[in-house]
Amino acid sequence: xxxxxxxxxxxxxxxxxxxxxxxxxxxxxxxxxxxxxxxxxxxxxxxxxxxxxxxxxxxxxxxxxxxxxxxxxxxxxxxxxxxxxxxxxxxxxxxxxxxxxxxxxxxxxxxxxxxxxxxxxxxxxxxxxxxxxxxxxxxxxxxxxxxxxxxxxxxxxxxxxxxxxxxxxxxxxxxxxxxxxxxxxxxxxxxxxxxxxxxxxxxxxxxxxxxxxxxxxxxxxxxxxxxxxxxxxxxxxxxxxxxxxxxxxxxxxxxxxxxxxxxxxxxxxxxxxxxxxxxxxxxxxxxxxxxxxxxxxxxxxxxxxxxxxxxxxxxxxxxxxxxxxxxxxxxxxxxxxxxxxxxxxxxxxxxxxxxxxxxxxxxxxxxxxxxxxxxxxxxxxxxxxxxxxxxxxxxxxxxxxxxxxxxxxxxxxxxxxxxxxxxxxxxxxxxxxxxxxxxxxxxxxxxxxxxxxxxxxxxxxxxxxxxxxxxxxxxxxxxxxxxxxxxxxxxxxxxxxxxxxxxxxxxxxxxxxxxxxxxxxxxxxxxxxxxxxxxxxxxxxxxxxxxxxxxxxxxxxxxxxxxxxxxxxxxxxxxxx
Length: 577
Known about the structure:
Layout: H1 2-17, H2 19-52, E1 63-67, E2 74-75, H3 76-84, E3 90-99, E4 105-111, H4 126-129, H5 133-137, E5 143-145, H6 147-153, E6 172-174, E7 183-187, H7 188-195, E8 200-201, E9 203-206, H8 211-220, E10 225-229, H9 236-239, H10 241-272, H11 274-282, H12 287-332, H13 349-371, H14 379-414, H15 419-451, H16 457-508, H17 521-531, E11 541-548, E12 554-561, H18 566-576
Parallel strand pairs: 4-7, 5-6
Antiparallel strand pairs: 1-9, 1-10, 2-8, 3-4, 3-9, 11-12
Helix pairs in contact: 1-2, 1-12, 2-10, 2-12, 2-13, 10-13, 10-16, 12-13, 14-15, 15-16
């Protein structure tokens, strides 16, 4: 044990003289771990939120009642009649978006906490038992939000946020470990007064009850209202699948780049310490002792890098989660929770992948270092043969990966296997091309050497020197190639996603301005046409119809009626597609 510690001290003395090499190795391990851990934690938290469904104070509605015409409010009178008819599992909900004085959009959910079924809003949980429902439901009211959302707004607990309209929101109250996410809770009466929505509701929440009670509820609904079960709503996990796939791809790309950095750092460190290791071997250190000491050294770097990378990954996920939640809310209407602690699902995967990849990285340079001849005069020839053998091995593996990519492409052209096989095929293509790079460059340089005239000594020396440098620099070239491809692919991925979203919005939002009100649409169109002759106005009618499917389920159909016109026909084609 003492000999191992002494040997480790001799090996680490190199990093005291060359600290940049140690930092480079540590950075490679951290880079491979941090973004992968961050994206996995974000995706795990999102999946946990999707699995729990939409919750309000630990209450999970099983469905909702809304107007048949999408976007139209529900009359509060209909809600009162339903409650008087004995439907106690129905609670009102009002969704409104207001803007603060700094033009920050704030989404407010107006609820009646005393209308929530017993055992939900004021149930047995530790979270709700400590809340002051009296201050929430009576003037001056209070506004409940997650601590992360308060930090995102730059507001403190008890502060009243001023609005662009000149009024102010109720005092803020932090609701720890809630499922609110990007939204904020307020008393429904206060929200109706604040936004001038008296007598209007966005929808009615229906909490779990018997099938017979649901059937009675549907029969009691007015003709302009419809009950939509939670099982009939779109699956948020499917809606956001491409978004989370992009996040996972970013993490994997960073992991690959970090592993190549780690490999180059290890190879350079062993090459720079070749003379030290040779002298230690000549001093009597056995091959097995040197191997164990170098593996223990790598284990110490891995432990430090994984701890630092995991901590930074968790911090990164916590800081990015509100932005991800805001993006999901704006793009898909899907909300995720901002908990006090992230879901640890899959947190073991990045350290395991990084440790396994680092051991694979150290396999070749460590073996080369231990197999190197101790006598100095035999070093050059052995190194040349070893580089050629390594390039041939890389070429064989690269050709195999390219064949795997070709097989995946041919299979996907015939059958649809999903996105993950396609990503695996793309990974095989990238890694196979990178592994073939040293052999291709060596063949090109050999052909160039034969083409250079013998009388041009300077150019011949340049080509020969390039061939010699290709050996130690081949892995760096592979890493740089993958980094460039990853950067280009990531920019293309993000750019195409943004362009597709913008094009979809431009096509979906056919008009430049939308007006909604109680005024007769035909009268409004005629009035606008007389006041602004160059204005193209059209009435938009939308309704939602729920019909049974042949398999016994229920399908929700959205019917939109628009006037004839080029831009409106474009929107209809999008809906049809």
